[in-house]
Specification:
The complex is a heterodimer.
Chain A: H1 13-16, H2 23-43, H3 46-72, H4 80-97, H5 103-122, H6 131-150, E1 163-164, E2 169-170, E3 173-174, H7 178-201, H8 203-213, H9 215-220, H10 225-252, E4 254-255, H11 262-275, H12 280-304, H13 311-332, H14 336-350
Helix pairs in contact in A: 2-7, 3-7, 3-10, 3-11, 3-12, 4-5, 4-6, 4-10, 5-10, 7-10, 8-10, 11-12, 11-14, 12-13, 12-14
Chain B: H1 2-32, H2 39-55, H3 60-83, H4 91-113, H5 130-136, H6 142-164, H7 166-176, H8 178-183, H9 188-214, H10 223-234, H11 239-259, H12 261-264, H13 272-283
The chains are: A mainly alpha, B mainly alpha.
């Protein structure tokens, strides 16, 4: 009963079409944002901020990007990490080669460079789909990592391609502390998540979903397939590019092309599978799951099985649990954690009655 | 000219290695429409299981039978536990399930047998054939020729199996249309078990060949990735296509590395097969031997 919308009337179109039409949802999201922006920086330890919250947010952004491409537009991609690499290295080079380049502009330009690369490698999607497209994005994955490693210009002639991100300064303020980095990343992710939510609610998002569900029929009713698919690749790669820049500047500090390898692409793919394909909130839920699960398993092994399992067997067990959980999720809840959350909300509307 | 021939032959023979893994993909895709990304992990599991059993003191041929049994169990277990509950799921979900299976099999193999690198000796040395070297100056490895011979036998056997046996015809019927096959009485579950067992056997052969060449180690799982361009060229549904695609990919990869690599800094064999497969896709999406797909609305 506490979650019903009884008594909530809409008198304007704007009220009817808002993102959170139910008052309880609005209150919930406001509390969540207050928690994220105020409580976490005040109370969380440095370890939580640096090792858990910042990577959680960075990967959420990358998962958002991949979700736009795979979840909404239906184009399978295994090259997310490559687009992240483009974003990271492009931002680094803009900061390096243009004096006085503002940080946020460098991030945005890094995203734009990733978007251009995404469009280039998205061109095959006009002719092929499914697993064939996965091979095309694998070509992007391997080629970009090779290019960033071999061409010294991208890494300021570093022999192994390693770059150290410049200091993050905005209007003279230096983002050195964990709290400052966390708040910067959180602000960027929040704004971009809002943009993504509005994009998928617009005619662009509806075009993506039409292409995903049946592209031939979508073309018949007048949707421009080429424009729609390439736009999905561009937007997705932009998000991955900005995520890559944050990954380099706000999280690791020092990155190399090999750090953006196929394993990272798979990791991001799993985030959207487990969190919910075709769901904005699913990107966050999946990212939280993937970031926290290894830590949880490590703590579990340390506390419960201390001394019983050797570290190597424990890490292999972790791999098995990880793979098993993916299969389990795909079997019992193919639509991911976001669907479970949605079901929970439906139950809440009827509570305390069972159905 | 002599150097060119040596590079070309070496490339062709390394392409045969990729074909072993591609065969596993083709078998399962033909029979069930599932793109089994875990084939590479199964190759690793097969090789590691065989070597682990050998290290227990079991004789070679008994170890081979036991490893084959393990692979059959793994294949049937996969079909039973992972894929059967996912009937009617979209292909992308099945693909993702096999990626999850990849992690599980990798963890299982290393948890059972440990993660150290092991050598594998099949009794054939990786050295040039002496009389050919003396006659033509071209070095061709005995081991590579042995691998090519095994591949030829395997593909011939599989092609004959699909073409001329009752079970093979049933497999092709199932690949064409599950519902139609069911309606004329073909037992789908049995067919799927057979095909996964055969794929397990192919993974074992691939694991032994690759393991003898590179050592049995975690990197074996990445052989699956090189099989993808092979599948693109040969087609997902053609057993001979897996060999032809492998030969083309292997030779072009080595020739590109030797002749183009010098101009761009080397190491291009890591991505050249994918770019070539990508170019090929834009021309002929179903591959050299694949079946043309017609969209229905």
């Amino acid at each position: 009963m506490l979650y019903r919308e009884a008594g909530q009337f809409k008198a304007t179109y704007a009220a009817d079409q808002q993102i959170f039409p139910i008052r309880q949802d609005r209150i919930g999201i406001q509390l969540l944002l207050a928690l994220a922006f105020v409580a976490v920086p005040l109370f969380a330890s440095e370890y939580w901020l640096k090792a858990i919250m910042v990577p959680f947010l960075v990967f959420s952004l990358a998962a958002l990007g991949l979700n736009i491409l795979t979840g909404y537009a239906g184009q399978l991609s295994l090259g997310s990490a490559a687009f992240m690499a483009v974003g990271a290295f492009a931002s680094y080079n803009f900061m390096l080669r243009i004096d006085g380049m503002p940080l946020l502009v460098a991030f945005a330009l890094g995203g734009l460079m990733a978007a251009l690369v995404g469009i280039a490698f998205g061109l095959p999607s006009l002719r092929i789909k499914g697993f064939y497209l996965a091979v095309a994005t694998l070509a992007a994955q391997f080629f970009i990592v090779w290019l960033l490693t071999k061409v010294g210009w991208f890494s300021n002639d570093s022999s192994s391609g390693v770059i150290t991100a410049q200091e993050m300064v905005i209007l003279g303020y230096r983002f050195d502390s964990p709290q400052a980095k966390y708040l910067l990343v959180l602000s960027i992710v929040a704004v971009m998540a809002l943009m993504a939510k509005n994009m998928v609610r617009s005619s662009v998002g509806r075009a993506w979903m039409a292409v995903r569900d049946m592209d031939v029929a979508a073309e018949v009713i007048g949707i421009r397939i080429m424009y729609t698919k390439l736009l999905a690749f561009a937007v997705s790669s932009f998000y991955c590019g900005v995520a890559g820049a944050l990954y380099a500047f706000a999280y690791l500090g020092t990155v190399e092309p090999e750090g953006f390898n196929l394993d990272l692409s798979f990791k991001i793919l799993f985030m959207i599978i487990i969190g919910g394909v075709g769901s904005i909130s699913g990107a966050f839920l999946g990212s939280a799951f993937i970031v926290l699960l290894p830590i949880f398993l490590d703590v579990l092994v340390q506390d419960v099985f201390a001394g019983l399992l050797s570290p190597s067997i424990a890490s292999n067990m972790q791999l098995m649990v990880f793979g098993g959980l993916i299969i389990f999720f795909l079997i019992v809840e193919p639509h991911g954690l976001a669907r479970l959350w949605q079901i929970a909300k439906e139950k809440l509307r009827l509570w305390p009655f069972p159905h | 000219m002599q150097f060119f021939l040596e590079v070309l032959i070496g490339g062709l023979l390394s392409g045969v290695m990729y074909s072993f893994v591609a065969l596993g993909f083709v078998l399962i895709y033909k029979a069930s429409g599932v793109f089994n990304f875990a084939q590479g992990a199964m190759v690793f599991f097969a090789a590691l299981t065989f070597v682990g059993i050998l290290e227990l003191g079991v004789p070679f041929w008994i170890a081979l039978v036991l490893a084959f049994g393990a692979m059959v169990l793994l294949g049937i277990g996969t079909e039973r536990i992972v894929l059967r509950p996912m009937v009617n799921q979209p292909p992308i979900a099945l693909f993702m399930a096999t990626i999850g299976l990849t992690f599980f099999v990798e963890g299982l193999a290393q948890a059972m047998w440990g993660a150290s690198v092991r050598g594998l000796d099949l009794g054939i040395q990786d050295e040039p054939i002496e009389w050919m070297m003396e006659a033509t100056g071209i070095g061709v490895s005995k081991f590579d020729l042995f691998a090519a011979g095994v591949a030829a036998v395997l593909v011939t056997a599989l092609a004959l199996f699909f073409q001329y046996t009752r079970v093979g015809r049933a497999l092709r019927a199932v690949a064409d249309d599950h519902q139609a096959a069911l309606s004329i009485g073909i037992p789908l579950q049995t067919i799927w078990r057979i095909v996964w067992a055969v794929a397990g056997f192919v993974a074992l052969v691939a694991g032994l060949i690759w393991g003898a060449r590179n050592g049995v180690q975690f990197a074996l799982t990445f052989t699956a990735l090189k099989a993808l361009p092979v599948l693109i060229l040969g087609g997902f549904t053609s057993v001979p296509g897996a060999i032809v695609g492998g030969l083309i990919i292997g030779s072009s990869e080595k020739l590109a590395e030797v002749y183009l690599g010098a101009y761009v800094g080397g190491g291009i064999d890591s991505w050249f097969p994918y770019v070539m497969a990508l170019a090929f896709l834009l021309i002929r999406p179903e591959g050299l031997f694949g079946e043309k797909h017609i969209d229905r609305v």
